[in-house]
Amino acid sequence: MSFDQLCNSITRLAIVIFLLFHGFCEKAPNYTFVYHATSAASISYYDYIIVGGGTSGCPLAATLSQNYSVLLLERGGMPYGNPNITNIAAFGIPLADVSPSSPSQRFISEDGVINARARVLGGGSCLNAGFYTRAAPEYVSVVGWDGGLVNESYQWVERKVAFQPQVKEWQSAVREGLLEVGVLPYNGFTYDHFNGTKIGGTIFDQDGKRHTAADLLEYANPSLLTVLLHATVQNILFSTNGTSRPMAQGVVFKDANGTEHKAYLNSGSKNEIIISAGALGSPQLLMLSGIGPADHLKSHNISVILDHPSVGQSMKDNPMNAIFVPSPLPVEVSLIQVVGITKFGSYIEAACGALFAATPSSRDYGILSPRVN
């Protein structure tokens, strides 16, 4: 074999290897504003600092960056290129991954309920079953939102992450069963909230690829947004000089090597630190920063910045009653597409796939695993 032939063979082999390892992974968007926290300056300044790059943090960062400098801090990594996140057939596998690098962080509540916190850019939208629906108009009214602005916001999200699902055998059977038992009327496919049975949206596209809140960063102004991955915020920095109440002025975060960095707000009356670290992470960070029940903070040797008895209290999860129906034959992976919304406010949904099987498995899917108590 000549030298030229050898070079050509090596090149072809390299291309084949590249395709094997990369050809079936989702191509990440060209996010020039995303960095590992190890590259961050020791001290930096922004108009807005957002803690938590999940389903709230990502759209907030995208919109605020249109006019202001924004820092988004996420303790996890990227969802792109991880087939266990992006492919519908792998749904649930991240929940079984209990390694330190997992996008899912398992925990067990005090009353013994297994659950998980997201630890990845895109948050829970990288782990959940991907059912998409709008809130009920009554809810929008009660919380005092502008209905027109809410509808514009829904459409803004839907252009990137919501799709009409392909309803196949299992979901069709669920739909017919709901109608047969009287969950009426049938509202067809709609993103809107109606009592009865409907087909909702899904964040999985026609190719079975998951779209997450991280995709909403495509709307961002790249010149004004900085996203730092593997950045774990330790506490919020407060100033009490000349004010009757403490004022948040910055945050301390650690990178993957354990090195500390500080990010401060630029001077400005409207500049803010926004905590969007989830229902558990947000109150946890406030308490670590000295805001919460004074006695509880003192018991952990945390200096009290503001005695706020409600922080971290009265946490409740939505009740769920799950019925597992074993199948003697393999079934397709079919996540939530059809929902029955009763007049009592409860939701009836169904999914199927190998991970829901009652037979012993080498993987423990946590809250999704059938258990006999």
Automatic annotation (TrEMBL):
Residues 1-27 form the signal peptide. This is Glucose-methanol-choline oxidoreductase N-terminal domain-containing protein. Keywords: FAD, Flavoprotein, Signal. Its cofactor is FAD. PROSITE patterns: GMC_OXRED_2. Residues 278-292 form the Glucose-methanol-choline oxidoreductase N-terminal domain. It comes from Lithospermum erythrorhizon. The keyword Signal applies. It comes from the Eukaryota. GO terms for molecular function: flavin adenine dinucleotide binding; oxidoreductase activity, acting on CH-OH group of donors.
